[in-house]
Amino acid sequence: MSESIAKVTQLGAGISYQDLGRMGWLNYGVAPAGAIDPFASAAANALVHNLDNDTVLELMLGGAEIEILGGCWLAHAGGHQCKQLPSGSGRYVHAGEILRFSPSSSGVWSYLAVAGGWDAAKFFGSSARHDRSDLGDAIQQADILHAHLAQPSPQPQIARRTPAACQRDYSKPPSLRLYPGPHYQMLSDGQIQCITQHAWTVSSRSDRTGYRLLSDVSAQLAHTHSIHSTPTLVGSLQLPPSGEPIVTLNDGPTVGGYPIIARLCPDDLNWLVQQHAQSRVTFSFI
């Protein structure tokens, strides 16, 4: 029987079970879901000697509070502040401790890993929560969370840190790299320059489905092109008629009717999702 490890005393903006997502089901219309920032998720898992695909808790924006019911090894990575367990650290946490996660100017998403992974039901081979299809266990206020495996002894192990060189300051994203998409040829040279030579602002209408981007030059990308519905991968840069691009994310649709002008480099998508609303990003084609 799995161990009772923690209790959710405050949900904050949201907590969900995630792993690397349910792969191989796109052709059946099943979105992958999974950790929105797999770089941070993997960093948290590494600190407690888990596999990258072990189930973590994904916390959005902050405000969450978790009471520890049983001693366990926990690790935290991502964009939130937590005095009891700072981002990029892991340690043995004792029963009775309370972890409080508050918003940070650097990052939107954080991950809490427990040694052995969190215990959550798998659907289509993954524990990832996808709200729109109601796949995966949902976490509610006052829920008791369990560890999948028995917890290791606190001794002789000591607290751990992710090396400073491997930690990210999400408030300073690099220029995000784009691969040309299947409808790249519909762009004129001037429109390509609009995309690459101007900063884009993350819209407040962004979530796990997709990030919307705004710019003063959006009107120059407006179009009347009509295409057949096309398979859409995570990271696809779609261009609606308004000229305001949408980056499809983990919970987004598997097909779309907007031209796909580019796809974000997977290594750079992690940077985009950690940007708060009104943050500015730039792009370059490779």
What's the gist of this structure?
This protein has about 290 residues and is mainly β.
User: How would you write the strand order of the largest sheet?
Assistant: 19-12-13-16-15-18-11-20
Distance between the termini: 50 Å
Rg is: 20 Å
Report strand %.
25-35%
The shape is elongated
Summarize model confidence as the mean pLDDT.
93
How would you characterize this protein structure?
The protein is mainly beta and 286 residues long. Helices cover 9% and strands 28% of the residues. A hairpin with a 7-residue loop joins strand 15 and strand 16.
Topology (SSEs and partners):
Elements: E1 3-10, E2 15-18, H1 38-47, E3 56-60, E4 65-68, E5 72-78, E6 89-93, E7 98-100, E8 109-114, E9 144-147, E10 160-161, E11 176-180, H2 189-196, E12 200-202, E13 210-214, E14 230-231, E15 236-238, E16 246-248, E17 255-256, E18 260-264, H3 266-273, E19 280-281, E20 283-285
Parallel strand pairs: 11-20
Antiparallel strand pairs: 1-4, 1-9, 2-3, 3-8, 4-7, 5-6, 5-8, 6-10, 11-18, 12-13, 12-19, 13-16, 14-17, 15-16, 15-18
Descriptors for this entry?
single chain; mainly beta
